[in-house]
């Protein structure tokens, strides 16, 4: 039955409690314990049953409870204190960004992502990418970075997971009721909802805009589930990562093109757009189109300005993690759009093809983003290296080490993930700066001052809470599954709050090898059931609905939990979410991570565990590859590369058992006369003191601001102002350069060096370069000197700019350089020529690099 009209019923909030609404509609409560405790105080049971959603809570609470709270002096004092602190925070009179970069009123950065994991009640995220994006917004808010977020508002979000009797993952989807979430519609001045329109084949699709306020940072979310649209278009924002390629391209057009139009419709045009993964890469084309239209410039001219303000972050070294669309699908949705850019269809597709001239190649969103963004990065040191190698083909003849993909290692937002008990401990011993300036290493070095007994008792309380939570969750799982009463009763006896507890919680993709620890069940049973030194394991995580091998891993774990040997010692927690994650990273003793190296881009759950004093046991992949030290945790293997995955699994499973048997378990159970595991606690302190200052999103966002955002603001301003004069000039210069480059040639290289020289000797080199119509100002000529590996390739190279001598004959310019040799061994040298222009963010332009005699040190 359809209603004649709709309306929203709001709770009758007493006047004295009106600030509750302000607090509920700003997601800062999700990382502020005082605000959470305020809502818990109002009704703790309702806080839990509402899914930790204060807006829904205020809409369903009994009026009598609100009236009683309005007359409760203790509650009102709590409310007033929280409100004052909230107002001071929102005023933001003295933020890191203001101190470092000055006060800027208008947003300077638009952060685009397909998912945002800010809090569990706003279910528009699937996993690590979304949680990282949510933590990015939170730290941007805390630091005062002038940033806005842009994403999609999914009607059903990601799926809820439950297991059937056979242990097989099932999926269910719950409707998000936007009107009972911490969201508000964005309206135009005339009071009507703000909307944007996009052309899809044969029709126009309209999207309305919602805002979630994340502290000081607004997050704008597009929603197509409105009556103006066809049923299939209302479903564009139905599910996250659901449907087929056709739905995926419609979502990504909406996110990129629609998201950029939404910002402009609100009068926001941040000079910098950060593409967090390739899903939003179409925004680069929309930005170019807008500049073409506004300034009457060509695609190539508009591209120079647009690209100057684009930052792209890639998150996966796994090919399946990148979106590839067949050409005919791209043509169906973007054929007309390409014409608005004055591009031929082949030229349009070339923007997203790894091999531009291959007409059968698919269109890759990551390739589009890498080609369009002036700055690109991976999310850990190792991932940056892997990404440079993975995408080297986009920069022909450029050595992998110099491919212009940098890295900014991920972090986590501490206030969102550290337990209340640990926060109180840090407050007492570290002072307030651990919250305000977590990237200051000196703050964390004070962890040595924490009483070992106090640290250990605090951690034990979190383990006790984890065990209690697990029993409650397991009881609910079994009851929902209609398990036998005896089995439901048994859920009250699983786990031991004093036993060594290992946590493994993440997406169940096969490369993450969730069952590596289970390869030898007999050996595992002996480990877990040692009466003197018991061990227990908690598993949680979801497999993608279409990932049958991932679901099989879950089934294998669940099957093991049914065996009497493992019933008390292994638990699989269904429907892994942020609330479950907090209990796990706060209460486990060891955080286990077993990806098949090097397929983990970063991984952040281990960072959350570290901040809570949990020790990491992991393969040297992602963040752990750069974080690991022998006194901080444990490494599985030594970063070896294996050609055969089966051999790798066998070797690393054996190494894992060895580490547990010989080091982890004995260290945990080695107790002094006072009952404390002194060596374990020393590792906890060393881990916190050495890692927390770096692996946090305050450091990460500050690094993005200093390395990418603010330089991009300047570059964009230089190219886009004065009717795009800078962009026009740069595009014209590039056109001349590309036309002239084939005429450039290194005619000869001369080096004054005997076959054998000594360390500290000076190498004198000359190069004779035919520049054709180019001038010396247009190029950089470099002398490359370095040691040779066993195959005769240059390694550990040193790059020396060569300077023109002023002599020129027959179009040839003579260059000279000298270098003092610092290392012994077999050396080699070569010379190369690169483009040079003050407005280039990198000298590596695809196809524009010339090596002496065709040499290229990989």
Structural summary, described in words:
By secondary structure, the protein is an alpha/beta fold. The chain has 4 domains: 15-91, no CATH class; 96-256 and 268-407, Glycogen Phosphorylase B (Rossmann fold, 3-Layer(aba) Sandwich), CATH 3.40.50.2000; 464-669, Rossmann fold; 744-854, Immunoglobulins (Immunoglobulin-like, Sandwich), CATH 2.60.40. Helix content is 41%, strand content 18%. Helix 25 (578-587) packs across helix 26. The longest helix has 44 residues, at 697-740. The chain is globular, with a radius of gyration of 29 Å.
N/C terminus separation: 68 Å
pLDDT below 50 for ≥5 consecutive residues: which ranges?
A: none
CATH class (first level) name of the largest domain: Alpha Beta
**Total helical elements:** 30
Helix amount: 40-55%
Q: Look at the helices and sheets and give the structural class.
A: alpha/beta
Mean pLDDT: 95
The geometry reads as globular
Oligomeric form: single chain
Largest sheet: 10 strands, mixed
CATH architecture of the largest domain: 3-Layer(aba) Sandwich
| Proportion of beta-strand residues | 15-25%
Q: Looking at CATH, which topology of the largest domain would you report? A: Rossmann fold
Output the radius of gyration.
29 Å
CATH superfamily of the largest domain: Glycogen Phosphorylase B
Q: What is the count of structural domains? A: 4
């Amino acid at each position: 039955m359809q209603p004649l009209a709709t309306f929203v019923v709001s709770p009758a909030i007493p006047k004295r409690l009106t600030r509750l609404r302000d607090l509920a509609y700003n997601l800062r409560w999700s990382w502020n314990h005082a605000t959470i405790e305020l809502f818990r105080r109002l009704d703790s049971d309702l806080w839990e049953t509402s899914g930790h959603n204060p807006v829904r809570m205020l809409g369903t609470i009994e009026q009598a409870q609100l009236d009683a709270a309005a007359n409760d002096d203790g509650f009102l004092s709590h409310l007033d204190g929280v409100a004052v602190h909230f107002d001071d925070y929102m005023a933001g009179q003295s933020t890191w960004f203001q101190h470092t970069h000055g006060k800027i009123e208008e947003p300077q950065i638009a952060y685009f992502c397909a998912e945002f994991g800010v809090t569990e009640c706003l279910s528009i995220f699937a996993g690590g990418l979304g949680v990282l994006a949510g933590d990015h917004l939170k730290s941007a808010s805390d630091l005062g970075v002038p940033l806005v977020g842009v994403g999609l508002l999914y009607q059903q979000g990601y799926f809820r997971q439950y297991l059937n009797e056979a242990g097989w993952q099932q999926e269910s989807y719950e409707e998000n009721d936007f009107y009972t979430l911490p969201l508000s519609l964005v309206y135009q001045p005339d009071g009507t909802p703000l909307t944007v329109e996009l052309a899809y084949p044969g029709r126009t699709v309209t999207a309305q805009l919602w805002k979630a306020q994340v502290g000081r940072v607004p997050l704008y979310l597009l929603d197509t589930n409105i009556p103006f649209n066809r049923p299939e278009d209302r479903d564009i924002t139905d599910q996250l990562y659901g449907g087929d390629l056709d739905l995926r391209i419609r979502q990504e057009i909406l996110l990129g093109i629609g998201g950029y139009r939404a910002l402009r419709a609100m009068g926001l045009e941040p000079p910098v757009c950060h593409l967090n993964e390739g899903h939003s890469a179409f925004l680069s084309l929309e930005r170019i189109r807008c500049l073409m239209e506004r300034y009457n410039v060509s695609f190539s001219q508009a591209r120079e300005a647009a690209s100057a303000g684009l930052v792209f972050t890639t998150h996966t070294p796994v090919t399946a993690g990148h979106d590839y669309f067949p050409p005919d699908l791209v043509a169906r949705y973007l054929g007309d759009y390409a014409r608005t850019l004055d591009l031929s269809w082949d030229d349009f597709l070339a923007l997203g093809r790894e091999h531009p001239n291959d007409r059968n190649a698919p269109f890759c969103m990551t390739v589009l983003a890498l080609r369009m963004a002036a700055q690109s990065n991976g999310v850990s040191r190792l991932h940056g290296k892997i990404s440079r190698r993975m995408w080297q083909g986009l920069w022909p003849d450029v050595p992998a080490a110099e491919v212009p993909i940098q890295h900014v290692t991920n972090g986590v937002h501490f206030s969102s993930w550290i337990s209340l008990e640990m926060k109180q401990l840090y407050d007492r011993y570290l002072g307030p700066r651990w919250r305000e300036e977590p990237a200051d290493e000196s703050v964390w070095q004070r962890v040595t001052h924490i009483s070992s007994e106090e640290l250990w008792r605090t951690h034990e309380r979190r383990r006790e809470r984890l065990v209690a939570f697990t029993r409650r969750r397991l009881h609910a799982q079994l009851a929902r599954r209609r398990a036998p009463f005896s089995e439901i009763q048994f859920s009250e006896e699983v786990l031991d709050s004093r036993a060594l507890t290992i946590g493994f919680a993440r997406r169940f993709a096969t490369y993450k090898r969730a069952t590596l620890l289970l390869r030898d069940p007999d050996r595992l049973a002996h480990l877990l059931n040692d009466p003197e030194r018991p061990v227990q394991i908690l598993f949680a995580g979801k497999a993608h609905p279409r990932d049958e091998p991932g679901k099989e891993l879950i089934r294998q774990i669940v099957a093991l939990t049914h065996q009497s040997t493992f019933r008390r010692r292994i638990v699989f927690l269904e429907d892994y979410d942020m609330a479950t994650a907090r209990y796990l990273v706060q209460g486990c003793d060891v955080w286990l991570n077993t990806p098949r190296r090097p397929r983990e881009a970063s991984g952040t759950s281990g960072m959350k565990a570290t901040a809570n004093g949990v020790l990491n046991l992991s393969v040297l992949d992602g963040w752990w590859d750069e974080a690991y030290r022998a006194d901080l945790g444990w490494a599985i293997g030594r970063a070896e590369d294996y050609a055969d995955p089966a051999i790798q699994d066998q070797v690393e499973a054996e190494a894992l058992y060895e580490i547990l048997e010989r080091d982890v378990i004995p260290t945990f159970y080695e107790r002094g006369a006072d009952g404390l595991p002194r060596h374990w606690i020393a590792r906890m302190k060393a881990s916190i003191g050495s890692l927390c200052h770096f692996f946090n999103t305050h450091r990460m966002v500050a690094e993005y601001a200093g390395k990418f955002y603010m330089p991009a603001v300047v570059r964009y301003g230089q190219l886009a102002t004065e009717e795009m004069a800078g962009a026009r000039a740069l595009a014209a210069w590039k056109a001349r350069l590309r036309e002239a480059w084939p005429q450039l040639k290194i005619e000869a290289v001369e080096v004054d060096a005997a076959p054998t020289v000594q360390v500290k000797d000076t190498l004198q080199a000359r190069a004779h370069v035919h520049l054709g119509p180019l001038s010396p100002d247009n190029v950089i000529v470099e002398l490359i000197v370095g040691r040779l590996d066993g195959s005769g390739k240059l390694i550990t190279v040193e790059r020396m700019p060569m300077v023109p001598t002023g002599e020129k004959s027959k179009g040839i310019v003579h260059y000279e350089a000298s270098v003092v040799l610092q290392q012994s061994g077999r050396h080699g040298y070569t010379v190369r020529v690169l483009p040079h222009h003050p407005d280039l963010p990198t000298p590596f332009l695809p196809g524009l690099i010339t090596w002496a005699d065709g040499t290229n040190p990989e």
